[in-house]
Amino acid sequence: MGKVPYIKFAKNCVTDLMDTQNELESIYPIHEYENWFYNQATGLLTFSTGDDELNFKYVNVGSFSKKFNTWKWSWDNEHTLSKVKDDILHVKEFGEKHGYEKLTGGYFASSEHEAWEFTAITAKLMKGIGAYRPTSEHLLIFMVLTEFVDNETAKDIKDLYVECDKHEYRRRAFVCSHLMAREEVGFEEAFDTYENMELYDDDYQAWCNECEKIRRREDGWNKKSMEFADIRVVCEKCYFEMKEINLGYK
Ligand SMILES: [Zn+2]
Ligand SMILES: [Zn+2]
Question: Which domain of life does this protein belong to (predicted)?
Fold first, then answer.
């Protein structure tokens, strides 16, 4: 394969993104919705007017600061959650392979025009279906839409998350009421867990030693053992805080 200069490659990607974007907007009139909302935890970008919703999966490419005229790739941004930035590392790897320095530096002086090039390149490499660029104060946030999500699926995804007073919006987890005291009461889990693991159809579930005794006596979870456990919903971060408190406890 011959070496394509970066400028030419970027330009081709921008042209392709324009076509992709036209196609997207001919199917989904995203600009006709009154509100937009993105959530890093669920990885969903939602457009809405009243109850009418349109959802997409998205990745966060990076952000351009109008104040400092700088670009920051999302993989270089500690405030961006892994759900929406991990895939962007493929773009970095691609840049390393082809010697495209703009794709490998995390944070540098740039322009809004270049930011669109980075977005177009990301869309190309990730087979994105379009792009969106919301603003947050002086920051322009560049996103690539990767997939349309029907309303039922979007609801199922959103149901897996909870709003926590301490940790904002996170994956939900289930614990027995005794763990809520955040004391050493033992920590039995439905399966071995670690933070940010991919859960698929499972949920984090944990209960204390006392609950475990009753669960065994009752030969599993039934009305009696469930009543004693009095299961509560917490966020993933809280779950791992409780796990840490109990680590090493026998
Ligand atoms: Zn318990
Ligand atoms: Zn929490």
Answer: Bacteria
Q: Residues 6 or more apart from 113 whose CB is under 8 A from it? A: none
Find the 167 Cα to ligand 2 centroid distance in Å. 5
Residue 246: nearest ligand to its CA? 1
- Cα 228 from Cα 128, distance rounded (Å): 49
Q: Where are the alpha helices (DSSP H) in 28-150?
A: 82-85, 89-98, 112-125
Spacing, Cα 243 to ligand 1 middle (Å): 13
Nearest ligand for residue 214 CA? 1
Are the C-beta atoms of 63 and 142 separated by less than 8 Å?
yes
Residue 23 is which amino acid? Answer: E
| Mean pLDDT (10-residue bins), the chain, 250 residues | 85 98 96 94 95 96 97 96 92 97 97 98 98 93 98 94 91 96 95 87 94 96 96 96 80
Residue that the structure tokens 């324009």 belong to: 18
Å from CA of 44 to ligand 2 middle = 20
